[in-house]
Specification:
The protein is an alpha/beta fold and about 500 residues long. It is about 40% helix and about 25% strand.
Length: about 500
């Protein structure tokens, strides 16, 4: 039997007045492969830090019984030896670490973890700065890992490949599901279907009992009316027949009691709410924004350089109207530079004169003045209040969030708001550079729905394989100084 590696009992962790985690008991076993999912702010990283001993719970205890290595995005790499082979596989440069990019720091920290064996691994969002090749390397390194693996990730492909359990963190509780991420989604769908069936059964039974109670009350009223409409002669006769009166009174009370009993049964029914229905949000474009060029973005013999390095040589392409076009390639291949060249309408690029372009670049958000989230959106959109609220809700802005000052939003909230504004804004072309990097799984799925129901043209860069498979109409790969159509 696999021994326990981490045991958590009666854990409580709060932030201000909000309970972030409330865990009666949770255990990690020797060869567990666990993926942790939940909305941003739900407590996923907090849970990892409690398991790693970085945070001490307000109540309860955490027992760590083996050696764990810990990875997170924010920590700086420690000075330690790494395997030469790993250094090559992860393309780690021989320069001072102070000069490393975010992606290079991520690869260095992963190389440090993989250079030594640990009985357990706690890994928080490892793929944010990795390209497709780096993600595949990460998966291969951990596929046959012999130990306990606990990973927080928004990358559904990684979770499908590596884990056999999902821990869902929601409303302070941790719920365990068996299987990988796709299995978890299937189980959630089944739960939703069963809840709908139970709701329909509840509504039907409630309706039956209410109708039966109403009929009984009507019957009791008829008996009362019959007693009240008797003639004087009938009343005199009735007075001489007390047993008949008693019988009618008893009958009336019995019917009323039966009706009351049915009403009580309605009150005692266990209420089953209908599952939340996901709204389909469509983004219709006004006639003023409609484009008629079959190819709103084109290039003719485009050469693109970074310093002396040639990224693209004599490249020609035509990006079709109303489609979502993905550009993929290794880190450093020139994807972001190509997007910027398009936005600058650089040499070799032709863009439809009626194109109105909305842009999302990683961590590039600036709010010039104090205004509420809802006010910010309303001032930059022609859609009605109901549509604006629906879109914000899809990106986890609910209740009091709509009144938050945009200049006080966290980084993650700012990114979600900028994405909402792009889809609701007055644009007909969107350029998105790594839009999924700092979103949780649920917001990524909302973004997928936005893209599927958007009428404009979208040009995007992403390393998220599942995301690309679901939204891209065509995919180009930038390699060997060429832009090659991979999928159409």
């Amino acid at each position: 039997m696999e021994h326990v590696c981490i045991e958590m009992e009666n854990i409580e962790w709060s932030f201000l007045d909000r309970v972030i985690l409330n865990i009666p008991r949770l255990a990690v076993h020797q060869f567990d492969r666990i993926g942790i999912v939940g909305k941003n702010g739900a407590g996923k990283s907090t849970l990892l830090k409690l398991m790693n001993g970085q945070l001490k719970p307000e109540k309860g205890q955490v027992k760590r019984l083996i050696d764990f290595a810990y990875f997170d995005q924010l920590s700086t790499p420690e000075k330690s030896e790494i395997e030469y082979e790993l250094k090559g596989k992860l393309s780690i440069p021989d320069t001072e670490r102070e000069n490393f990019s975010g992606g290079e720091q991520t690869r260095l920290k992963l190389a440090q973890i993989f250079s030594n064996y640990h009985e357990g691994l706690l890994i928080d969002e490892p793929t944010t700065h990795l390209d497709a090749e780096g993600i595949q390397f990460f998966i291969e390194e951990l596929t046959y890992y012999y130990g306990a693996l606990i990973i927080v990730s928004h990358d559904r492909y990684v979770l499908d490949q590596l884990v056999t359990k999902i821990w869902e963190v929601e409303d302070g509780k941790v719920t365990e599901y068996t299987g990988n991420y796709s299995d978890y989604v299937a189980q959630k769908e089944l739960q939703k279907k069963q809840q709908q069936e139970q709701h329909e059964k509840y509504v039907k039974e409630k309706s039956r009992l209410m109708k039966a109670a109403e009929e009984k009350m009507k019957k009791a009223e008829k008996i009362t009316q019959a007693n009240g409409q008797m003639s004087k002669k009938q009343a005199k006769a009735k007075a001489n027949k007390m047993f008949m009166t008693k019988s009618k009174d008893t009958s009336q009370k019995a019917v009323q009691r039966a009706a009351k009993a049915m009403e009580q049964r309605v009150e005692q029914l266990e209420v089953v709410e209908a599952p939340k229905e996901e709204q389909t949000i469509r983004f219709h474009q006004s006639s003023a924004l409609q484009l008629y060029n079959k190819f709103p973005i084109m290039a003719d013999r485009l050469t693109l350089k970074a310093g002396k390095k040639i990224l693209l040589e004599e490249a020609s392409f035509q990006f079709p109207l109303g489609k979502t076009i993905a550009i993929t390639g290794k880190n450093g291949s020139g994807k972001t530079m190509l997007l910027r060249h398009v936005l600058q309408r650089g040499e070799g690029i032709t863009i439809s004169p009626k194109a109105v372009i909305g842009v999302y670049e990683q961590m590039d958000y600036h709010f010039p003045k104090d205004e509420s989230v809802f006010g910010f959106m309303k001032a930059r959109s022609d859609y009605d209040d109901s549509k604006i609220r629906s879109v914000l809700h899809s990106m986890s802005f609910t209740g009091n969030d709509l009144r938050k000052n945009v200049r006080e939003l966290s980084g993650g909230e700012s990114i979600r708001l900028v994405l909402c504004q792009l889809f609701l804004g007055r644009y007909n072309v969107l350029v998105l550079d790594e839009p999924t990097n700092f979103l949780d799984v649920f917001c990524i799925e909302a973004l997928e729905q936005f893209l599927k129901n958007y009428e404009g043209t979208v040009l995007l860069v992403s390393h998220d394989r599942t995301f690309l498979d679901r939204v891209a109409d065509c995919e180009y790969v930038l390699e060997h100084q060429k832009l090659i159509l991979k999928r159409d």
